[in-house]
Design a protein that fits this description.
This protein is α/β, with parallel strands linked by helices. It is built from five helices and eleven strands, in the order βαββαβββαββββααβ. It is globular and about 45 Å long.
Length: 232
């Protein structure tokens, strides 16, 4: 761990299309990679409109299957993150950390493990016993509550995690989530027997992240002070 605590800024994008959030992530990554830029480590928080995404481990998704999913009312994207197909949508807290691991630890394996432990810490704040498994992500029993899929180039991270808060889980029934057969998907609301919104879960995520990554988290209501374009 680098000496001292790193400051990580939080930008809440609200409910946004996957394509728009992807564009903003790419802007942030480019700023990090510019030698003259001192772009801050950033957490982009959002909810997505219904979308299915695939990762780099996915074989080319059959066009007829892509069409079937789109006819359900969802978008479809092929991405450069790790992992296989998953769903993002309303009621899901999505966090895209765009970080320079040089400020933390230059290890992708360490980073993924810390994201998992962050969510496990959040779940414990809600009284839930969550854990890891040989499959990436965070689980409550045999059901995944949080998917994790990242990209890292030159130790700059993008993509991230998606925590089911009060997500409509029926969207997952249309696919084999993350390519894992025989296991389920769950949410904070389902496990706790009450409605847990993204707004309720967000401060717990930020607290758990700051504790796990030993950083100062600075929340901003808007991106006005951030050198990125969140319009559109």
């Amino acid at each position: 761990m680098a000496a001292g605590k790193t400051t990580v800024r939080v930008v809440n994008l609200g409910r946004v299309s996957y394509g728009r959030a992807l564009e903003i992530q790419r802007q942030c990554v480019r700023r990090h990679l510019e030698a003259s830029s001192r772009f801050p480590n950033t957490l982009l928080l959002c909810e997505h409109r219904p979308v299915y995404t695939t990762g780099i481990r996915q074989q080319p998704y059959p066009p007829e299957e892509e069409l079937r999913l789109k006819l359900l009312g969802a978008d479809f994207f092929r991405t450069d993150r790790g992992g296989l197909i998953t769903f993002h949508g309303p009621g899901q807290l999505v966090c895209y950390p765009v970080l320079s691991l040089a400020c933390f630890k230059k290890s992708v394996r360490w980073y993924v493990g810390e994201l998992e432990q962050t969510v496990i810490g959040l779940c414990s704040m809600f009284g839930l016993d969550a854990s890891t498994s040989p499959d990436t992500g965070v689980w409550v029993g045999d059901s995944k509550i949080c998917a994790i899929g990242i990209h890292c180039g030159r130790y700059i991270t993008s993509h991230g995690l998606a925590l089911n808060c009060n997500t409509d889980l029926s969207w997952f029934e249309k696919i084999v989530p993350c390519g894992i057969v025989g296991k389920g998907v769950t949410s904070l609301s389902q496990e706790l027997g009450r409605d847990v919104t993204v707004a309720e879960a967000t401060p717990y995520l930020l607290q758990a992240f700051s504790e796990r990554f030993q950083c100062h988290v600075v929340s901003e209501d808007t991106a006005v002070q951030m050198p990125i374009n969140t319009g559109g």
